[in-house]
Amino acid sequence: MIDQSLRTLAANTIRALAIDGVNRANSGHPGAPMGLADIATVLFGEIMRFDPDDPRWPDRDRFVLSNGHGSMLLYSMLHLSGYALSLDDLKKFRQLHSKTPGHPEYGMTPGVETTTGPLGQGFANAVGMALGARMAKARFNGKAGFDPLTHNVYGILGDGCIMEGISSEAASLAGHLGLGELVFLYDDNEITIDGKTSIAMSEDVEKRFQAYGWHTLNVDGHDQLAVKQAIEAGRDERDKPTLILAKTHIGFGSPNRQDSSKAHGEPLGDKEAQLSKEKLGWTLAPFEIPNEARAFFAAAGDRGRAAHAEWTQKMDAAKASNAEFAASWEAHWNLAAPADLDRVVLDKLKGAKGATRAMSGTALSAIASKMPALIGGSADLAGSNKSEIKDSPHVAKGSYAGRNIHYGVREHAMAAMTNGLALYGAFVPFGATFLTFADYMRPSIRLSALMKIRAIQVFTHDSVYLGEDGPTHQPIEHAWALRLIPNLTVWRPADGVETAMAWVYATTQGEPGPHAMLFSRQNIDPFTHREDFDPSDVWRGGYVLVDRPGAKIAIVATGSEVGTAVLAAIELEKRGVLARVVSMPSVERFKAQDRAYRENVLPASMKKVTVELGRTDPWAMVTGGGGLHLGIDTFGDSAPYEVLQEHLRLTPSGIADSVVGWLAG
Ligand SMILES: Cc1ncc(C[n+]2csc(CCOP(=O)(O)OP(=O)(O)O)c2C)c(N)n1
Ligand SMILES: [Mg+2]
After folding, report:
1. pTM over 0.90
2. Residue 265: what pLDDT?
3. Is the CB of 264 within 6 Å of ligand 1?
4. Are the C-beta atoms of 253 and 196 separated by less than 8 Å?
């Protein structure tokens, strides 16, 4: 039995660290950690199982602080629980290159499961992790004499996360799928930055979540025993995710800030810190940690270490006695694929004709057949996106062995859940929709890039040539808007070979990081590769597709415009203009090549023309400026695509006319 006075001491330790950390940085948010200290004490000290020495242990409980502004809470917990995060690290809160940045950042701090800060994202990541847990459990539990995966996904979210639309999308799907692994505590303090939540919110959150199919509980967030019982009840509910609505006081213990939005975003300052510590009965020096509190949290870490050691023994025995289980485990947790994967996919797509979205579908299923970790789904456009993995069922409530996911019409949650699935560790996940709707997903794609995780998004209907659906559906700025996100690799393949190689790269090659895959709805103009073409040139992002001795201009094109550019170059030759054609499936990959390679493909001596059905000006970043950039800088039109091609003068002869006119000045 844990003595209540020990719990109180442990919680006040967190409060004192939050006060001191934020005061020392002279920046940050003390209110949430002070209000959540009782909950965090129970979660880390008594509920969760984790091994501080191995933050990647597959069977650890995951914890997500969706209200990332309360980062000092998480850092305190990680430090006290024995993760490689020192008291000195806590003292460097919010400083350059410290392990304790303003908001939790994946990859910076051991034990931080995801980057949070943009409210609602963490919650939706956690839903993805819980789905990952369900899918992994369906694959591994009961298969080799023991259940290697018994963990849950815990999290805390605040009023801001509750209000953000993404949490509604994610909660709806979590309820629908019955993700019982999830136990979230709602920091129901009725305060946000601008004041009381009642200024902008009056719904019944509990009823809302009940309507989504969640198990809900109410608790006084400062009654630690009650919190503990509620979390245990949530954990034991296996068929529904649980939301515990915990009434808390922001800035708990601060005489002049408690229950006020002033506790949210500014340090308490020396005077209020002193008053708060007096109120909490805290007499220790700044950053001093009582031995009993240290021992309380350390014991949880030790229990986790022991559990991990026992787990490893069982795992080793299971692997030794069951080769199939061992191979499947490795394939998932190492995200493994055969070394000749490119051959396998190329064989399926050489000489392919049609739309690149169809080629993408072929590539996807070919990779999936060799890479068990590949899973994903579409936001209600699976048929259009060609994003279904062949011969595998869809995940549904009660059955999670499939590899396809119906996200419903929930693009934002899809992107955030894709991130959560990638963070979970056993999967390479993809989402899919139309390219225009990338706008609905951008905040999550941006975070996948910040985290450098292998999260893939498939975007079909990648230009105005989608046709009759018109300007609401026609992407214009989207390819470049994605290319502007650092660390994101954008692919716009031009044929079967490029599609195969782009998919193989996205799933298995390079540093981990997110990929956006852009594919056409319409059939493309086919072209043939040079005799000496090496498919791995695709991974260089740009390569000479067709050369002509004496060429004075280089036409750079992407995706469905490459075939058209090849025809335009033939037309130009007839008119006495010699052009080489450069296919550029990935601007990012091309920019990553050394100078000599880039100069070889796009020599300074050649004039540059670019053709891509999207915003034109950004191409100056590739050509160095002074080129002719053909594309579209207005919204599109509703019409059959052949009509649009004429209208935009982007037929082979239209392009040739523009080039000749441009050369003539
Ligand atoms: C998407 C997004 N919008 C706005 C913000 C800025 N912001 C940070 S915290 C916050 C208020 C959050 O209120 P709540 O979740 O109740 O946290 P509390 O003040 O209770 O700690 C806002 C608007 C943000 N981080 N993310
Ligand atoms: Mg709040």
Report:
1. yes
2. 86
3. yes
4. no
